[in-house]
Amino acid sequence: RPGLPPEGLMLPGAESWSGSSPFIAGSADHVAVYGGGTKVPEKAADAAVSLVVETAREISATREPSDELIAKMEMALDREEPLAVVDQAIERVLGLELTDWEPLYDALSAIALNTVRPRALKTAMGLLGAFQEEETIPFFATMARHPEFSLFATTALANDVSPRARAELLTLLDVTQGWAKVDVVERLLRVEELDLADVLLTKAMDGVEPLGGYIALGVAERCDLAGALASSDLMRDTLTGACHVLAQLANDAVEGGPI
């Protein structure tokens, strides 16, 4: 079945990241995205981003990043709410006039592959995604299956317009559930160069319960739900999926949707 087994959802690090939290994996970031916002003061976020930028400069000045510099960057990336800093960090780091980006790429890769700090991993994925290196695509596709990291991993995949990245994003429709599935569908809804109406109608609502309200309206609008239901040429699986979208919209209209 899609998704991960319970042991696959366990996170390393502090106890609060390892199962004692009353919230399911990924909830905190997604609540922030869908209306709650982050709670980090702007001044604190700016200071955190400045530390990342300063460390990036130090790393780029070396031929090969030392373990000490990699550890310094890992600590700089380990913010309480990665969402509060990741976009600004990407913008400012990409704005650096570096002569050699490879040391920074190597340091971020080392952190992403070896850290036991989930928050550092999220921010590292955000920065790594900006490089759009083909070798990172399988990594992002794997991390996108975990709801704690799917928001960052699917964003990195979606920002890469290469055929391989697009193919991986589409494949994730079949292997994700819950928040991870929401993230995959949300990113695919923004892919304009491909005709994804049939595949989204067919697969978007599978395994997304009880979070279907976050994507149903977007799927209906992007895929012309009314036109699909009126068509006599719709495949059975696609018709079934379209009916699930309609049922979710009806439920949201009666009980109130999440957004």
The largest sheet, given as strand count, sense and whether it forms a barrel, is: none
Mean pLDDT: 90
The Cα radius of gyration reads: 20 Å
Strand coverage percent: under 5%
Order of helices and strands: HHHHHHHHHHHHHH
Count every helix, treating DSSP H or I runs of 4 or more residues as helices. Answer: 14
E-strand count: 0
The first-to-last residue Cα distance is: 28 Å
Backbone structural class: mainly alpha
Uncertain spans: 12-22
Based on Cα principal axes, name the global outline.
elongated
- The percent range for helix content is 55-70%
Write structural notes for this entry.
With 259 residues, this protein is mostly helical. The protein is built from 14 helices and no strands. Helix 2 (42-60) packs across helix 5, helix 5 packs antiparallel against helix 6 and helix 11 packs across helix 14. The longest helix is centred in the C-terminal third of the chain and has 20 residues, at 236-255. It is elongated and about 65 Å long.
Name a few traits of the molecule:
mainly alpha, 14 helices, 59% helix
Question: Could you write a compact summary of the structure shown?
Answer:
The chain is 59% helix and 0% strand. By secondary structure, the chain is mostly helical. It is elongated, with a radius of gyration of 20 Å.
Helix and strand arrangement:
Elements: H1 27-36, H2 42-60, H3 67-77, H4 86-94, H5 102-114, H6 118-129, H7 137-143, H8 150-159, H9 163-171, H10 178-189, H11 197-203, H12 216-222, H13 225-230, H14 236-255
